Amino acid sequence: MSALRTLTTGLVLGESPRWHEGRLWLCDWGAHEVVAVDLHGRSEVVVRVPSFPFCIDWLPDGRLLVVSGGDRLLLRQEPDGSLVPHVDLAGLCDRPWNEIVVAANGNAYLNSIGYDMMAGEAPSPGILALVTPDGSARQVADDVAFPNGMAVTPDGSTLILAESHASRLTAFDIEGDGGLSNRRVWAALDAAAPDGICLDDEGAVWYADVPNKRCVRVEEGGRTLQTVELDRGCFSCALGGDDGRTLFMTAARWTGPQSGADAARTGQVLATNAPRPGARRP
Q1: Which residues, 6 or more positions from 182, have their beta carbon under 8 angstroms from its beta carbon?
Q2: d(Cα 115, Cα 131) in Å, to the nearest integer?
Q3: Residues 41-95: pLDDT tens digits?
Q4: pTM metric for this prediction
Q5: Binding-site sequence positions for substrate
Q6: Does residue 255 come out as left (phi exceeding 0), alpha (psi in the -120 to 50 range) or beta?
Q7: What is the CATH code of the structural domain delimited by 5-273?
Q8: What residue spans carry the region label Disordered (predicted)?
Q9: Cβ-proximal residues to 100 (8 Å cutoff; 6+ apart), any chain
Q10: How far, in Å, are 83, 177, 217, 267 from residue 241 at the CA level?
Q11: Taking the CA of residue 37 as centre, how many other CA atoms within 13 Å lie in the half-sphere pointing to its CB?
Q12: Residues labelled catalytic
């Protein structure tokens, strides 16, 4: 791995990074902004989202989807830049929603951690939901331990999920109707707390780890391939850049749930060269 470089600073808490149309897009949870940053560090606020948390991905036709977690809504950005309701998620779970990944066929997978961490509620199992292109939504998995980042394999056959409170990556087969089956441990991660993840073209997963201040590449079965050590919590990661071989990491100093609204702006986007390009979902 090459040396770390800093792409941008001054974020409150960066999450859900995605490489899209030549820029890195991310959600600054504390500032309630979706920000796009180019490879020279020039940034633009693309849209403001009042919710906390919120995460992003795109439909195949290019429309932006935003999980407005605190509002229990999936939003869609219209051509005029406005955000409109796409799906009401409250009927599936009335606790905050978290991450999203959109498969090549337009099926969107979302998760709820199952409790309101920011309000100090005790941990409770979370769920995964499927939103199909026609706008229908249903639960497709339950009893997950703080579901976090997700990735879909390029052939659309497998969804990989980070379970932060179980120190593991979990895989599901994706059925023809979008449902999930054959749940299994993809990688047991000793003493890790996997947060955001991304998949490369060799089938390895990079996972961000907040308490251990690192970003780690693992293969199926759990063998560690590479580790990038940081000086603050790593919340999420994405592969992108001109050749897909830049690893972007969002990092910030974390002192507990109150950090999400902290105005100290310790958040950064860091970058380094990766051994393999990304698989693109996310």
Answers
A1: 171, 172, 173
A2: 21
A3: 999 999 999 998 999 999 999 999 999 999 999 999 999 999 999 999 999 999 9
A4: 0.96
A5: 95, 98, 116
A6: alpha
A7: 2.120.10.30
A8: 258-282
A9: 16, 55, 56, 57, 65, 67, 74, 108, 109, 110, 150
A10: 27, 33, 18, 20
A11: 27
A12: 195
Annotated binding residues, as ranges?
15, 95, 98, 116, 148, 195
Which residues are part of a known binding site for a divalent metal cation? 15, 148, 195
The residue extents of the domains of the chain are 5-273
133-169 pLDDT, tens digit per residue, is: 999 999 999 999 999 999 999 999 999 999 999 999 9
- Contact (CB, 8 A) for 45 and 33: yes
Q: How many residues does the chain have?
A: 282
